[in-house]
Amino acid sequence: MEMSEKRINPDDFRRDFPILSVKENGKRLVYLDSAASSQHPVKVLAAMESYYETSHANVHRGVYKLAEDATAMFESARVAAGRFIGAPDPAREIIFTKNATESLNLVSHSWGRKNLSAGDVIVLTEMEHHANLVPWLMLAEEKGLELRYIPVDSEWELDLTNLDALLEGAKLVCVTLASNVLGTLNPVSLIADAAHAKGALVVADGAQFVPHLPCDVTEIGCDFLAYTGHKMLGPTGIGVLWAKASILEAMPPFLGGGEMILDVRVDGFTPNEIPWKFEAGTPPIAEAIGLAAAIEYLQDIGMDRIREHEMKLTRYALGELEGQFGEKITVYGPPDPTKRSGAISFSVQGVHPHDISQVLDEDGVCIRAGHHCAKPLMRKLQTAATARASLYLYNDQDDIDALVGALDKTLKLFSF
Amino acid sequence: MPGLEDLYREIILDHYRSPRNKGELPSPPAVKAEGFNPLCGDEIIVYLIVSSGGVVEDIKISGQGCSISQSSASMMSSSVKGKATSEARDLVKTFKRLMSIHEHEIAATGDSASGIATTSASAAYIHDDEADEEAVDLSKLGDLAALQGVVKFPVRIKCATLSWNTLLQALDEAEAST
After folding, report:
1. Which of A98, A173, A319, B81 has the greatest number of CB atoms lying within 10 Å of its CB?
2. Dihedral over Cα of A277, A282, A287, A288: its sign
3. pLDDT for residue B140
4. Which parts of chain A sit beneath pLDDT 50?
5. CATH match of A45-299 with 3.40.640.10
């Protein structure tokens, strides 16, 4: 009880992240690019190192104790990755992939190829990341599918006015839980209810949501959920796909090879049971163990507290940006911090995002500049690129103040 | 660690604020070539009119991008306008050589970037397939030499060369159609 009342104190957490005490250009590292990739606490690094030093062997193969240990650690990481998102049957419903992009490609290749044919409809949104867009464009080209898009309205939210019409005849709906550009949190449970009423399944992209907010797939009501380890304090090279067991059982395998089979003959094969049916070859074992350590770290703090901290900091950041720069700055995304994540995209009059990022770098402030792998959304915003500062549990008001100070310097350098 | 003053020289900011030859030309008669930098979404469109005598009669630049890509395009347009296409191609080659100089080679000259920009000929050498140890004559580059500092920021080199590569496409097209 005492724990839940404790306020989040980023100074406590900063000490857990070795990289945050590295000086950048002789200055405190102000890392505001966690939506691209987050940093790692000692706990994650130690878990991976310890695994390599004491427990490494290939999983699901050896009969010796070391291999059994490695297998047990790998499979318990799977359960942790499932429980973290409220998976009803985590030992069977979690597939490890390389990243969220591969998770989504797995759905398009396996479920999509089997269940969709010419003329079928997939509904997407205008704010999808390329990861939840290009796999469907590829499948549409291959199969002759129709793609429809839920538009983004002037409040930076999905315009659901014509949702029922868009869903007419749809077999699949692909939607992000949180936009990597706008920060918008989408009403996926509402969309899922409407989609299910029309007989469509729902793929949720959780890459920008799962690291930052409490997540329960049964509450969301989606059929598939993809997320990735390296945006939630875990290592790169580990992604997760969750789907209902009944759906996974009916899906054909994705990649072929060892591990994913029960039997192989010269004239055919019998696929393994789920989830291993979808995990060909030696999986990312240390990365799964690192992800489990990251999940434990996040759970020790509590996702509610992380969310609360990020909302407060987002409110402060939005206030400072608008307050200091007024009309010179355009901040994209909902102004209400309760309706958005801490991914804050903005543009500054007369200064290209690349130049902003370059000048900020001199003050040790790391932000992302570019199209954020969301080109259709950029076209909608009528811009080629934005600057994006994104927050996580280890950021604090000093980071925002450093951002604002460096932005002020940028504006002065480029003043017309 | 290179400083911002190496990158954002006043002349670069001037071309960014007041780009020369900005606009479009009716195509045809102008040829039109588009270049993209997928990293940052920069986009350059070069409109080019080459006379029957092989002279760049007119050039306009449109598109959008960062200060480096836009100022480089502006300087490029000023420097090739009125020149023979062969001279324009030489200038592309020289400029791209300038952009392939490695940082340690600049340092080895014992001169600051601003020094190099105002010193001619002898200062800078490069290792390039096309031009072994051939000197880049900075005096021929005029304002363009100010872009020298970009090589210290490797991520930005593509910004600086975007318009030049697009110019090459436009020259190819113009010459193919005559």
Report:
1. A173
2. positive
3. 72
4. 1-5
5. yes
Does A384 contact B43 at a Cβ distance shorter than 8 Å?
Answer: yes
Q: What are the b/e assignments for B49-79, b being 16+ CB within 10 Å?
A: bbeeeebbebbbbbbebbbbbbbbbbbbbbb
Q: Is the pLDDT of residue B110 over 80?
A: no
Q: What is the pLDDT of residue A155?
A: 94
User: Quick one: which of A377, A395, A393 has its CA closest to A317?
Assistant: A395
Q: Which of A255, A250, A241, A276 is nearest to A103 (CA)?
A: A241
Q: Are A384 and A372 in contact (CB under 8 A)?
A: no
In this complex, do B41 and A378 lie within 8 Å of one another by their Cβ atoms? yes
Q: How far apart are CA A9 and CA A2, in angstroms?
A: 15
- Interior angle at CA A43, CA A341 and CA A4, nearest 5: 55
Contact with chain B for residue A376, Cβ under 8 A? no
List pLDDT tens digits, range B44-94.
Answer: 999 999 998 999 999 999 998 899 999 999 999 999 999 999 999 999 998
Q: Give the pLDDT confidence score for residue B127 in this predicted structure.
A: 39
CB–CB contact A353 B40 (8 Å): yes
Using an 8 Å CB-CB cutoff, list chain B residues near A371: 40-41
Would you state the pLDDT for residue B101? 60
Q: Which residue among the candidates A174, A215, A222, A373 is catalytic per the annotation?
A: A373
| Res. B105: pLDDT tops 60 | no
* Domain spanning A2-40+302-414, CATH class: alpha beta
pLDDT at residue B135 is higher than 70: no
Alpha-carbon torsion angle B108, B110, B114, B116, nearest 10: -70
In the three-class reduction of DSSP (H, G, I as helix; E, B as strand; rest coil), residue B9 is classed as coil
Is there a contact between B7 and A358 if contact means CB atoms under 8 Å apart? yes
Domain range summary for chain A, segments of one domain joined by +: 2-40+302-414, 45-299
User: A359 CB near a chain B CB, below 8 Å?
Assistant: yes
Is A98 in the B-facing interface, judged by CB distances under 8 Å?
Answer: no
In the residue annotation, A373 being an active-site residue is answered as yes
Q: What is the pLDDT of residue A395?
A: 97
Of the candidates A171, A178, A196, the one whose C-alpha atom is nearest the C-alpha of residue A128 is A178
Q: How much is the pLDDT for B123?
A: 32
The band of B104, judged by pLDDT with boundaries at 50, 70 and 90, is very low
Strands A30-31 and A365-366, bridge-based pairing: parallel
Alpha helices (runs of H) in A251-396, residue ranges in sequence order: 285-301, 303-325, 353-362, 375-380
Q: Which CATH number fits domain B4-176: 3.60.15.10, 1.20.1250.20, 3.90.1010.10, 3.30.70.990?
A: 3.90.1010.10
